[in-house]
Automatic annotation (TrEMBL):
<protein>
    <recommendedName>
        <fullName>HicB-like antitoxin of toxin-antitoxin system domain-containing protein</fullName>
    </recommendedName>
</protein>
<dbReference type="InterPro" id="IPR035069">
    <property type="entry name" value="TTHA1013/TTHA0281-like"/>
</dbReference>
<dbReference type="InterPro" id="IPR031807">
    <property type="entry name" value="HicB-like"/>
</dbReference>
<dbReference type="Pfam" id="PF15919">
    <property type="entry name" value="HicB_lk_antitox"/>
</dbReference>
<dbReference type="InterPro" id="IPR051404">
    <property type="entry name" value="TA_system_antitoxin"/>
</dbReference>
<feature type="domain" description="HicB-like antitoxin of toxin-antitoxin system">
    <location>
        <begin position="17"/>
        <end position="68"/>
    </location>
</feature>
Length: 75
């Protein structure tokens, strides 16, 4: 069993033109993303997406990356 890992989650507010709500991505897990109408919903959804990403990677025999503790924010 894999212990819970604390991956950095990046939240972005979506414009009305893009459907509104929020988009969450996980930079350490390529392609791992989810959306939701509220911040609470998107955070619940991204936790599910992280679990599914890890399960799929394990089923394919891929290594699960450790969370990057040395990231920097840019503009």
């Amino acid at each position: 069993m894999i212990r819970r890992r604390n991956y950095r989650i990046v939240l972005k507010t979506l414009s009305v033109e893009d459907g509104g709500g929020y988009l969450a991505t996980v930079p350490d897990l390529p392609g791992c993303m989810s959306d939701g109408a509220t911040e609470a919903e998107v955070l619940t959804n991204i936790e599910d997406a992280i679990a599914q990403w890890i399960d799929h990677a394990l089923s394919e025999g891929r290594k699960i990356p450790e969370p990057d503790r040395h990231y920097r924010y840019g503009t």
